[in-house]
Amino acid sequence: MSAGNEGRGEGLDVLSLSIHGLVRARDIELGRDPDTGGQVLYVVEQAKALVRRRAAGGVQLATRRVIDKRLDEVYAGPQEEICPGAHIVRIPFGPRRYLRKESLWPHLDSMVDQLTRHVRVTGRIPDVVHGHYADAGYVGAQLSKILGVPFVFTGHSLGRVKRARLLADGQDADVIEERFHLERRIEAEEQALETAAIVITSTRQEVSEQYERYDHYRPEHMHVIPPGVDLSRFSPPVESWSEPPIGSQLRRFLVHLEKPMILAVARPDERKNFERLVQAFATTPGLSDRANLVLVMGIREDLQEMPSASRRVLSAVLEAIDRYDLYGRVAYPKRHGSDDVPDLCRWAARSRGVFVNPALTEPFGLTLLEAAASGLPVVATDDGGPADIIGVCQNGLLVDPLEPEAIGAALRSALQDGERWRRWSENGVERVHEEFSWPAHAERYGEVVGALLERERGWRVRERARRLVRIDRMIVTDIDDTLIGDDEALEALGDELGKASDHVAFAIATGRPIERAIDALRELEEKGMPPPHVLIAASGTRLSYGARKRERDRSWEHQIDYRWEPERVRDVLEGLPGAGPGPPEGQTVFRVQYRLDPTAAPPLAEIRQRLRQAGVEATVLLDHDTSLEIIPVRASPGLAIRFICYKWNLEPERLLVAGDSGNDADMLSGDTLGVVVGNHTSELEQLRDHPRIYFAEGNHAWGIIEGIRHYDFLGRIHVPEADGEEAY
Q1: What is the C-alpha separation between 570 and 581, in angstroms, rounded?
Q2: Angle between helices 108-122 and 133-147 (to 10 degrees)
Q3: Which one of 346, 397, 556, 727 is at 20 to 30 Å from 523 when CA atoms are compared?
Q4: Distance CA 629, CA 503 (A)
């Protein structure tokens, strides 16, 4: 695919986001690590199906570009064709080396900036942004607000569900949070659900038992569109079947290869429940005499080099095999190729075996469909999607994954009744072809998203990139307690800007309403400051350009008006403890403001929850602990800045952004060059380790001057990176 529109046909243009894991078009390394699982296969197969069935004219699947000598060079390539019309686009952000998904979160704002740049440079504005999993949910929600296009979300696996399961398994809440950072993930999922016009799930159970746990659960936004199976790869064994290449690996483990095969395929993750499966196999009378157990637990070279969580799972499985003396009866091959899993499913079906998925929680269960398509009956967890799959396919049993006795009894039962086994095998093949195909998924996807675009046609604002005349960099600063507070410093900053070239723009970003902001600008001019080229007022809800005329950006106002319901905000927050009406001048068309008593008011998270549970979509800001501001969901100071970068063709790293309080945090994030002045509030301390945020010692405008010199912003511009990291 070229930078522009080559390679796409007529129709829907989808920008699909799958950030973590190793994404490539062919020979997907499923199970290589805990992050390269079924979601990677899902997004690639979905992209193929959408263009092949002409549900979409083009699909860009955006993921992270990784340059790491431990990995295949394909992950370092900027683009890769999946099929005509569908391409993987690898976006450079953060360190070059491969990172686990938990380590990517500090870099997600950078991906927002880099994706915005990609859209601007290619000139290809998608009709819809589709984020997969929480991290892409966060990125996609922000990107859709900047571009003014609808957002579609698929969670795949949800943080609230994972936390509930880990707690039910007896794990300590603090240990869970320290290890998985689930609070951050859950908040990202809440933001994704708040922004999404459509949420695509795989099963009804996901809707009723998983998404319903969230504050911003909106049943009318939920659409069940099951994924499909690649029926060209998964099919029943034929009469001429012969032992596949992976047989040489199994022979190293199994004494009686002719016995029925109990097959489990999943990455080595605690949630996959392998240890209980081995216990069930060992302790169920007669089971280990009757059948072999084959565990395909990802790909490994050296146990000591595996991620610690995966190593713990594999070590526990090996200890259980030794404890129950299962040598010769359990196989656990070190590696497998993309063709080995279909071969194993056919082998297990030919042996009249069974596929087992005993996961503690399973949002969907694509491997169950692959087994069913191969004529292999299943035993699966009763948590999550398997209930829907077995309910449709009528090809197996559900079990409580916490009960080894139940798992073992179900496996033994599935193997004992030959007539029932045959019926289950035939049912699975027939129903998968009827109900779970990628062509059917693509057709339904096109219908749902097409109807959405028709409904929201009036909200589309196609802003193509332009250029602010002669400008190649911009200094953006808050007014109160950042720019003002020291007249001598203000005069010195004015002198600095006065000596700067015509290529340097000056911008103000303030929470003040436009009238009070203009009053402040007059006072600033009297003290030697130049008039700003760009004015962002009322907490990012009002944009205007020009040092004198101040041309209002109507396209931004049209964009943020999306789903804005100020009267509902007032109704929902009426009677909020510790909150009173803000000053009349603080109330604008796109802002509802309250004075807040921090000693009496509930935490900000509870205020957000109150709005979300009422179905109100909005951005909630807190300024200096005393000013509560509710603005449209597509608005914020940071989003306004990124809209300016996108619209006026400015790179984020050519913006120096200065602030002093928590209200400035979102405009300091990402790839911009941030400056936190010395008199900042404690809310910004969480940003201190960010390589592109400089904490100045000087207060007020002295801190801005210090930041300008730190970055050499009026000269060559120095862009710092994280210590010890080779970054893009």
Answers
A1: 10
A2: 50
A3: 556
A4: 34
